[in-house]
Design the sequence.
């Protein structure tokens, strides 16, 4: 064999090996029984150690699961906020002894309308309000509206807090690989593979998150934790300065270990510890235990506001903290609680998850408390503060959520669709291959090699990016391969023409590839344009189709043009006198 | 093997007036029929689609009857898959679970029941349809709410917490969760056919605002892809080819839409994928012919555009037919083995491939000729004009 082919042959072999390398995880994934497939540990155990971890996943339409798009009614959240503010203003004015005819939200609930009894009280209120409620503006008369910048932040955080509540609830169910993400400005996308109980999924929308304040049982904790004795693998001990605790990445296991171990009058609840590696990337989620008093001291419905503020002056100047306010009854309860427990820790619990346990420094009687954060790092403190505000607001100012879109596929339907879809695609591919081999004889057989290689490359690319295999995706796979054959058709037709024009085999191949190239290039680019538009438009299953189509077209440049030409040239080099079979 | 013999020379452009007229007629006809004849699926129309499998044969009529008994007389019921599978697709359009009349009735009843707490308003959230928002002057205890709901005979959901107290200081606010659509359908079917005889395999609910959004984005996507392709042709080839490409694509989109107009099958998200793939396929065909036109024009200088285009179509005819065939072959398996939406995908795609082949031969070429003639006329007129001016 001539040495000038060696480089190109090596390149093709390299690409094929690389493709096989990347397809391995997907192959292993599909060869596992459906029940254990999504178990990451079982999957990794079955995987050869040298293989990459990225693989294709089955779409919800094929493996069963719930796809939900929830809309956060931010407008209603804003209206509720205005109403709440009217209450705050009213009770403040009452407390200060200002005389007013009415303080209430307008009918459209977009502003607080105040009518004062006299000009003196009105101006006293205005002065105080400017410093008290800096997030509002006075528009003509005594009509107060929220600042647009604040309102925008509020809308965004309404979606964030709904997202957080939903994530925490899903977290409790132990669904493998859930997807929870924002979509658009007010939507939340939730995908729960293998989860097929739509009734249960609706719990996500159900009741408002329960926000509670409970005292931390530091005194009892050390003994309770010590008594547990030997721990199963994966659970370790720790101490946070106040109490001993257990921690693990396996939530279910941790719950099992702690079950029934809490002393009388106390309860074990879990909290999430966000781990970060040195580069700041979030690590695996770790759960830790908190021993709390059983009694709920105060609930979130007494909370009127929670926001991030920054300390002005003093030692901690510039440090972010969380400011919270209670309504009148809440302020009274909070004063009693903090007065009686100075020096102890108070846990903030949302939906049975402990999100923070700050120390009570002094009695707080005004109904406005500050929660300072432990971290010294500014950015980290700001992040923690933001997160805590989301927690507090979820329990206090719920943003109503409704279902925009719900698609549930039962577990029994998926395998049937995979079977019929795969059969359909394979039949189509076999027909195309048979046709090519018969119609173009040896050139057709070469095209079949390109066809198979193209299929392999598509699978490899999809595995590499961890794409989702959907039902339209399977159809797209067959169709893409059928369409990508076009490049081989163009080339073969050209070679036939050149041969008819009386050229030698070598010249015919040379000219055939050369002349077919511009047509292949232009026609593929235009098809790609359509595929890219589809990619931008498509959601879920349709997107899978568009991805397959795009990859297939790009891969066909390589397989149909580069690889088949190489095969032709090598064959010619070995038998220069042979006639072409096309 | 050869389907098209070498040296074939058909005069494709001779009857161009007829072909272009027919194409334009098809486009107009489909456009006119679109609003009345297209059966929009839940993806675009909003609504609920439920796939159920029965343990034994039930028949479409019985299911329809059962659905009618709970007020969904407009429900579409359709058998899918093999007859032995006993699987059906039930589709209920966007229905207000609580109609205006019902809401007024509930309002009246609750006003009476809760007079002690100062009834303010009762509203239904149109986005979900299964939530009622109640506002009162004073907070109502849960037991009282339950009593009032019974008194007003609200169809509450069987899920936990059908009544919620959302009061957070300020004006008391409560919410009733009514029976949702899929609850209602599944419940009714189990009641009618027996607990273990019915399996709900798939439920798809798309809210009205999402449907509208998807529809608008779908139209945008099709138009955008056409615009991008025409621009590419404009830059890569010749100005004269762009209008023909555009008309050809319009023709293909219309013909493929015609599949749904004629069959009345469900038009859904996958259908948009078919439209865009057809656009991609058709322009692929067109571009191969244009490429050939470019080549013939340089090879045989002096040939009229009419003959150039004709020669190019003839020379690439074999490829056009063979590629069409392989693409159709790849879809044959889907036609035979795939169920539901994939069958329509394959069938409509085959229509698209045929239409794309047709349009790249009979639509784009003639329009290019026509544009060329118009341009030459204008050019000639411009050349004559200064002469006239000189004489004057």
Sequence:
């Amino acid at each position: 064999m001539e040495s000038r082919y060696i480089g190109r042959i090596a390149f093709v072999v390299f690409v094929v090996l690389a493709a096989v390398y990347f397809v391995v995880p997907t192959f292993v994934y599909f060869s596992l029984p459906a029940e254990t497939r999504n178990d990451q540990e079982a999957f990794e155990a079955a995987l050869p150690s040298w293989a990459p971890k990225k693989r294709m996943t089955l779409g919800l339409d094929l493996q069963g699961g719930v796809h939900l798009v929830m809309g956060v009614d931010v407008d209603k959240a804003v209206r509720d906020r205005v109403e709440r503010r009217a209450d705050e203003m009213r009770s403040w004015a009452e407390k200060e002894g200002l005389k007013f005819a009415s303080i209430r939200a307008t009918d459209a609930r977009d502003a607080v309308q105040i009518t004062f009894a006299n000009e003196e009280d009105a101006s006293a209120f205005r002065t105080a309000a400017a410093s008290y409620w800096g997030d509002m503006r006075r528009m003509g008369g005594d009509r107060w509206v929220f600042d647009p910048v604040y309102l925008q932040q509020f809308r965004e955080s309404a979606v964030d807090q709904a997202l957080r509540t939903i994530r925490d609830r899903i977290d409790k169910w132990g669904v493998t690989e859930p997807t929870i993400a924002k979509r658009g400005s007010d939507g939340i996308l939730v995908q729960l593979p293998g989860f097929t109980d739509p009734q249960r999924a609706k719990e996500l929308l159900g009741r408002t998150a329960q926000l509670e304040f409970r005292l931390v049982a530091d005194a009892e904790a050390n003994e309770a934790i010590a008594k547990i004795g030997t721990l199963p693998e994966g659970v370790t001990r720790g101490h946070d300065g106040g109490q001993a605790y257990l921690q693990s990445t396996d939530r279910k296991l941790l719950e099992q270990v702690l079950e029934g171990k809490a002393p009388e009058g106390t309860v074990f609840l879990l909290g999430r510890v966000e781990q970060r590696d040195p580069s700041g990337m979030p690590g695996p989620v770790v759960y830790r235990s908190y021993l709390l008093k059983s009694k709920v001291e105060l609930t979130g419905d007494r909370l009127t506001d929670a926001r991030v503020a920054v300390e002005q002056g003093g030692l901690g100047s510039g440090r972010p903290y969380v400011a919270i306010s209670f309504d009148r009854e809440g302020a009274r309860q909070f004063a009693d609680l903090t007065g009686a427990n100075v020096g102890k820790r108070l846990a903030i619990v949302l939906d049975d998850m402990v999100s923070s346990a700050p120390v009570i420094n002094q009695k707080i009687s005004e109904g406005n408390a500050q929660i300072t954060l432990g971290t010294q790092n500014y950015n980290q403190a700001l992040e923690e503060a933001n997160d805590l505000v989301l927690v507090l607001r979820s329990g206090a100012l719920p943003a109503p959520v409704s279902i925009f879109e719900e698609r549930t596929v039962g577990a029994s339907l998926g395998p049937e669709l995979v079977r019929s879809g795969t059969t359909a695609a394979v039949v189509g591919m076999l027909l195309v291959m048979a046709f090519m081999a018969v119609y173009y004889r040896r050139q057709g057989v070469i095209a079949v090699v390109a066809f198979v290689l193209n299929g392999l490359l598509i699978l490899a690319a999809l595995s590499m990016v961890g794409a989702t295999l959907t039902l339209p995706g399977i159809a797209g796979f067959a169709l893409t391969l059928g369409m990508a054959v076009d490049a081989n058709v163009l080339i073969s037709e050209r070679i036939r023409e050149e041969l008819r024009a009386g050229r030698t085999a070598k010249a015919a191949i040379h000219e055939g590839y050369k002349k077919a190239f511009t047509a292949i290039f232009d026609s593929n680019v235009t098809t790609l344009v359509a595929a890219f538009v589809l990619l931008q438009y498509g959601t879920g299953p349709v997107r899978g189709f568009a991805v397959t189509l795009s990859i297939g077209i790009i891969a066909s440049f390589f397989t149909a043009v580069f690889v088949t030409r190489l095969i032709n040239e090598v064959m010619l080099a070995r038998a220069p006198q042979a006639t072409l079979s096309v | 093997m050869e389907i098209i013999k070498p040296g074939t020379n058909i005069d494709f452009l001779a009857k161009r007036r007829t072909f272009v007229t027919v194409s334009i007629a098809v486009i107009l006809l489909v456009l006119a029929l679109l609003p009345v004849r297209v059966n929009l699926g839940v993806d675009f129309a909003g609504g609920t689609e439920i796939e159920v499998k029965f343990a034994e044969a039930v028949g479409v009529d019985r299911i329809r009857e059962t659905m009618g008994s709970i007020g969904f007389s407009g429900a579409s019921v359709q058998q899918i898959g093999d007859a032995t599978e006993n699987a059906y697709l039930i589709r209920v359009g966007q229905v207000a679970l609580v109609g205006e009349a019902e809401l007024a009735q509930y309002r009246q009843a609750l006003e009476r029941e809760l007079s002690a707490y100062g009834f303010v308003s009762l509203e239904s959230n149109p986005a979900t349809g299964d939530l009622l928002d109640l506002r009162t002057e004073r907070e109502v205890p849960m037991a009282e709410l339950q009593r009032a709901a019974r008194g007003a005979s609200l169809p509450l959901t069987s899920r936990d917490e059908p009544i919620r107290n959302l009061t957070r200081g300020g004006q008391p606010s409560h919410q009733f969760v009514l029976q949702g659509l899929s609850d209602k359908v599944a419940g009714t079917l189990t009641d009618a056919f027996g607990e273990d005889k019915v399996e709900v395999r798939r439920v798809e609910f798309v809210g009205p605002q999402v449907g509208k959004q998807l529809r608008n984005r779908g139209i945008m996507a099709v138009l955008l892809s056409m615009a991008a392709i025409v621009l590419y042709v404009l830059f890569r080839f010749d100005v004269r080819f762009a209008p023909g490409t555009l008309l050809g694509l319009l023709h293909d989109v219309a013909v493929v839409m015609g599949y749904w107009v004629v069959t009345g099958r469900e038009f859904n998200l996958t259908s948009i994928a078919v439209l865009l793939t057809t656009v991609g396929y058709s322009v692929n065909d067109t571009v191969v012919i244009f490429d050939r036109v470019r080549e013939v024009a340089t090879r045989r200088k002096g040939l009229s555009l009419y003959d150039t285009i004709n020669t190019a179509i003839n020379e690439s005819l074999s490829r056009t037919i063979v590629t069409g065939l392989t693409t159709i072959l790849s879809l044959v398996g889907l036609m035979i083995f795939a169920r539901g939406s994939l069958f329509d995908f394959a069938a409509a795609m085959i229509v698209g491939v045929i239409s794309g082949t047709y349009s790249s031969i009979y639509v784009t070429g003639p329009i290019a000729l026509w544009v060329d003639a118009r341009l030459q006329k204008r050019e000639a007129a411009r050349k004559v004009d200064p002469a006239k001016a000189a004489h004057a």
In short: The beta strands of chain B are 39-40, 47-54, 76-80, 87-92, 119-124, 131-136, 163-165, 173-177, 198-206, 266-267.
